[in-house]
Amino acid sequence: MKAETKFDEVYKELSSIRENELSFNEADTVRFVKSQIQKMVSNLSAMEKASQQKEWDELLGNFLQLLEKINLINVYLMQPTSLSMLMKERIADVVEKLISSISFSISEAVLMIKEVSKEMGVENINISVSGTPATINVSISMKKA
Questions:
Q1: Which domain holds residue 68?
Q2: If you write DSSP's letter for every residue of 118-133 in order, what string do you get?
Q3: Is residue 75 assigned to a domain?
Q4: 19-33, 81-95, 120-134: least confident range
Q5: Is 39 exposed, middle or buried (0-12, 13-18, 19+ CB in 10 A)?
Q6: In terms of pTM, does the model score above 0.85?
Q7: What digits encode the pLDDT tens for the residues 30-73?
Q8: Are 27 and 125 in contact (CB under 8 A)?
Q9: Cα–Cα distance measured from residue 59 to residue 82, given in angstroms and rounded to the nearest whole number
Q10: Cβ(17)–Cβ(30) under 8 Å?
């Protein structure tokens, strides 16, 4: 998946930032985001595998976990201690790439579900972004079994 590649690039950029040049809060934020990126890549891989093996519960479960991690990152980055860090040019650039990667991953994940929606019994899937910090909301309508 392309989203995995995009996340890998962001992870490498975050890894190239020297923690000794950051404040404690900034270093903690970088470590947190890196750990969440690894987990999101794992969710995307698991979704792809579940789709191929027609394990719909795994596909939906990993999709929801992906969204939870995305929402968690959004909330974490909007904390006052994190906001000041986002003003630093180098980190701000990486955060922009992270946001782009997140958007791309949601698009890929939704399209993956859409491709197999009839087999899964999914009638409709709606995604919306709301609030500050931004949260991703999902509504999935399923056929009666």
A1: 2-118
A2: HHHTEEEEEEEEETTT
A3: yes
A4: 81-95
A5: middle
A6: yes
A7: 899 999 999 999 999 999 999 999 999 999 999 999 999 999 99
A8: no
A9: 32
A10: yes
If one counts every other C-beta atom within 10 angstroms of the C-beta of residue 99, the result is: 16
Indicate whether 140 belongs to any domain: no
Joined together, the tokens standing for residue 51 give 């789709």
CB-based contact 83:30 (threshold 8 Å): no
138 domain-assigned: no
Question: Domain tally for the chain?
Answer: 1
Residue 125 lies in a domain: no
CA distance 122 to 91: 39
Asked if 46 contacts 58 with a C-beta cutoff of 8 angstroms, the reply is yes
Residue with token string 């399923």: 142
Q: Pick the closest to residue 122 from 78, 80, 59 (CA basis).
A: 59
